[in-house]
Design brief:
Elements (H helix, E strand, L loop, with lengths): L6 E6 L7 H12 L4 E7 L14 E3 L7 H13 L4 E5 L1 H13 L3 E5 L10 H14 L5 E4 L2 H9 L8 E3 L28 E5 L8 H10 L4 E5 L5 H11 L4 E5 L5 H4 L4 E4 L8 H8 L4 E4 L4 H4 L6 E4 L4 H12 L2 H18 L2 H16 L2
Parallel strand pairs: 1-2, 1-4, 2-3, 4-5, 5-6, 6-7, 8-9, 8-11, 9-10, 11-12, 12-13
């Protein structure tokens, strides 16, 4: 009996940091069923080495488009008989599209957030022009949330009738309760409320607003897990603002150790695609306070699973945090609603299944 040929997929990311896009890509690649064989093109990477080997891995430049990488990709795709190239994020999308001009494969592009808030008008104009010209190459464009798709449409990015929304997903976890607390991380003062954030230290995450919020409510502890190019700047800002109730934890392999001993999750982002960090907090039953921006608005059901506040309106965020901090029953109800919403809409199993169906469809185009 002739064995069925596996569909070979090359995942590309121009970012090697631990973060939403790379985490999503490797979670997806690791969990596809046996009908698929997955390869990776990423920058030198110490975070996911257990998934990379000399057969399935091509090293590319970090956040850079160059002819050497394009030539290496063409050679790698041809050598391994790749059926589908799946580019994750803007840099990977550009690299995959330029490669596709010289060597045709089925091309899927996932946006993982549209980054116009951090750039000036001219840069944004060039970006939209580029998307409308080169985006025609894509066989499918994937948005990780409905609000991200609408945002692209409102920017007048031409979608060419090739779009699909596949919500990000995370593994289901046990709901938070006292039995989940990790002994060596138990609070020194169990009466204090803990607000937690997990994010890269980059402009997009708007971390200074966390510091401003924390300064106004010193009776509440704030923890920030993550690292990035703004690490020193945020440390300096804490000193300048004389804020003592914010603990910068740094990178952690297991964020759930900290989520389980926290009470509220806070996101101050300027924009998101579909934030895995919020989904992880929802998966254990934390109520969410988040900025009312694309991506966040898909995760939080305002007034049911947490609260959405107007971006940069820290007064509004403080009021919501205080409301939750002062009412344990409200935290429990909203946390449970959050837990149920993650399982219904944002589970890893649903996400993987949706991508498998899309890959089968793309391979048979």
């Amino acid at each position: 009996m002739k064995l069925k040929k596996k569909i070979k997929i090359l995942m590309i990311s121009s970012n090697a940091d631990i973060g939403g896009g790379p985490n999503h890509m490797f979670m997806l690649g690791e969990n596809l069923n046996s009908s698929f064989e997955v390869y990776y093109a990423v920058p030198k990477n110490k975070n996911f080495t257990n998934l990379l080997n000399f057969k399935n891995y091509l090293e590319i430049s970090e956040r850079e488009i160059n002819i050497r990488d394009i030539l290496n990709l063409i050679k790698f795709i041809r050598k391994n008989s790749i059926d589908i190239v799946h580019a994750h994020g803007k840099g990977a999308g550009a690299l995959a599209r330029f490669t596709n001009l010289f060597y045709k494969t089925k091309l899927i592009y996932t946006f993982h957030g549209i980054h116009v808030e951090c750039h000036n008008f001219l840069v944004n104009l060039v970006y939209i022009f580029y998307e409308n010209i080169f985006g025609k190459i894509d066989n499918y464009k994937i948005f990780v949330s409905e609000s991200e798709r609408l945002y692209a449409k409102n920017l007048n990015i031409i979608l060419w009738n090739k779009t699909c929304v596949i919500n990000n997903g995370v593994p289901n976890k046990l709901i938070k309760n006292k039995n989940n607390d990790i002994d060596f991380l138990k609070k020194n003062d169990s009466s204090k409320i803990t607000v937690i954030s997990t994010c890269r230290f980059v402009k997009q995450k708007n971390i200074k607003d966390i510091v401003r919020i924390a300064k106004r409510i010193p009776e509440i502890d704030f923890k920030i897990i993550g690292y990035g190019k703004l690490w020193k700047e945020i440390n300096q800002y804490l000193s300048e603002m004389q804020v003592e109730n914010v603990d910068l934890i740094g990178l952690q392999q297991n964020v759930f150790k900290f989520l389980y001993i926290s009470d509220i999750y806070l996101s101050t982002s300027l924009y998101e695609g579909m934030p895995l960090s919020i989904l992880e907090a929802m998966s254990i039953g934390l109520p969410i306070v988040a900025s009312n921006v694309a991506g966040n608005i898909d995760t939080v059901k305002n007034g049911k699973t947490g609260y959405l506040y107007d971006l940069n309106n820290i007064e509004m965020a403080i009021n919501f945090i205080n409301k939750l901090a002062n009412d344990e029953s409200l935290r429990n109800v909203m946390g449970y609603n959050s837990f149920k919403r993650q399982r219904k809409l944002f589970s890893k199993l649903n996400m993987i299944s949706n991508y498998e169906n899309l890959y089968f469809k793309a391979a048979n185009l």
